[in-house]
Design brief:
Blueprint (H helix, E strand, L loop, with lengths): L8 E2 L4 E4 L2 E4 L2 E3 L6 E3 L2 E4 L5 E3 L7 H11 L7 E3 L5 H4 L2 H7 L4 E4 L1 H7 L10 E3 L5 E3 L4 E5 L11 E4 L4 E3 L20 H16 L8 H12 L5 E3 L6 E2 L1 H12 L11 H11 L4
Parallel strand pairs: 7-8, 8-9, 9-10, 14-15
Antiparallel strand pairs: 1-4, 2-3, 3-6, 4-5, 6-7, 11-12, 12-13, 13-14, 15-16
Helix pairs in contact: 6-7
The protein binds fe (ii) ion (FE2) (2 copies).
The site of one fe (ii) ion has 6 residues, from helix 2.
Length: 277
Amino acid sequence: MTFTPLLPTLRVAPTKIARDTYLIHQVQEALGQPLFVYINSMVILGAEPVIVDTGSPANRRQWLEDVFSLVAPDDVRWIFISHDDVDHTGNLDEVLSACPHAQLVCNWALVERYSNCFDFPLRRCRWVMDGESFDVGDRTLLAIRPPAYDSPTTRGLYDPTTKVYWAVDSFATPLPDAHAAVADLDPQFWREALAMFALGAVSPWISLVDHDKYGAYVSRTQDLDITTIASCHSPVIEGPFIEQAFSRFRELPSLGPLALPDQSVLDQIIEMTSSPS
Ligand SMILES: [Fe+2]
Ligand SMILES: [Fe+2]
C-alpha cells in the first residue's frame, strides 16, 4: 500500500517518560498560526507490551518505524484504543496486521460507531469500559475517562506501577516551539491554551455542566496517584504542573463558550498562504 502524507509533520524521536514507558511523537503545524501541536501515542514495554493509540495516517511510515524500534511486532500483546478519532486510530489496521498476537482493547461504543469504516476482528477484541481494568502480565491497567473528551468511547489509561496517566485529548495545548516543555511556556499562555483547546476543540459541553458536579468528576482522575500525565496533544506534564493543569480544568465550566476562528479568519489564512500570481 502506498500512502501520501496529508499534512507536513515534524520529526521528534520517541522519548522515555517512565520505566518501560515511551511516547511516540508527531508534531503538526497549527493552521494559520506560528504554533505546533503534538499528536502522541504511547508504548508500555511490560511483560505483555501494550501500544496505546495508533497515531495518525499523516505520519504512518514514521509512526510504524518508531513503535517497532521499541517492540517487535510479534511481541505486542495489547493495542489499547482510547477513542474513535483519526489521530488515535490512524494506523490501527496496519498495527493489527503487523501484530498477530495482540488483542484490541476497545469497547462497545467504539465498535458500534467505527464499524462503518473498519472491520473489527471481534474475536481479538476485549471490551474495557470506563472504570474497568485489564491485566497485562506484570501490571493491571485502569481505563478511566479523562476530564475532557470528544467521544463517548473515550477512556484514558492509568498504570499504577509507573503512575503514568494517558489523558487522551485532555490537557491539550499548542506550543510556540515544537520542542518546548510545559515548563518553557509562559504560564498565562498555557492557562489560555488549555482552556482554548478544552472548550474550543475537544469538549465544548463543559461550559454547560454544573461546576460542582464537574469538579467531582475531575477528582476521579486527579485522586489517582499520578506523577506523569501523558497527553496526546501536549508535552508530558509532571511535578507542580499536574496540580496546575487540574486546577485550570476545574475552572472550565465557568469560562463559558469561547469565540473561535470564523470565516474571516479562514479568509485571512487563505490570503496569507496564497502564492502571488
Ligand atoms: Fe479526540
Ligand atoms: Fe486527539
